[in-house]
Amino acid sequence: MTTIISPLATPYQFEEFVNDGEERWNSRNGTEITTVVIHHMAMTNYDGVPEVWREREASAHYGIGPDGEIRAYVGEEKRAWHAGKANSYSIGIENCNTSTAPDWKVSDKTVDSLVKLIKDINKRYGRKMRIVGHQCAEGNSPSSTECPGPSLIPRLSEIIKRVNGE
């Protein structure tokens, strides 16, 4: 199977993840991708994300750093473990924070790259993806997680408008 990543992204420890096993991603079994799920990393160490996933059964397709750098962690053809029931039909994008709790701020450069990445995903798949915050992904509720955090939640409508050219 061909590995699919955005041309905007740099593979980051990609081969390690590809060879690491099924506990952090597996086959979509042909399920169509219809949704992008936005997350915040809940950390300010952009380079530390892969280490967290080595300790937990979790992963995401992409991560965006505070300077706007986009990294690919798991190919889009795989089901990453980032949003419960939505995993099979979604692409997960983690956004690095520039501050810790309680604000969990995300830089404007990160948001700009997030918009560019989702536009690229839409273009490559030939349709507008549904864009949701983690807490609104299927099987989750605002009371089950605060992700994508207090910095990104109020910006979701702005992000959607920018992606859709409104």
Automatic annotation (TrEMBL):
Pfam families: Amidase_2
Catalytic reaction list: Hydrolyzes the link between N-acetylmuramoyl residues and L-amino acid residues in certain cell-wall glycopeptides
Record-linked InterPro entries: Amidase/PGRP_sf, Amidase_domain, NAMLAA_amidase_2
Keyword Cytoplasm: no
Listed EC numbers: 3.5.1.28
EC top class, as a word: hydrolase
Record has Cell wall biogenesis/degradation as a keyword: yes
Stretches assigned to the N-acetylmuramoyl-L-alanine amidase domain: 21-149
Top-level taxonomic group: Bacteria
Keywords associated with the record: Cell wall biogenesis/degradation, Hydrolase
Xref: PANTHER family: N-ACETYLMURAMOYL-L-ALANINE AMIDASE AMID
Protein name per the record: N-acetylmuramoyl-L-alanine amidase
Organism expressing this protein natively: Candidatus Enterococcus mangumiae
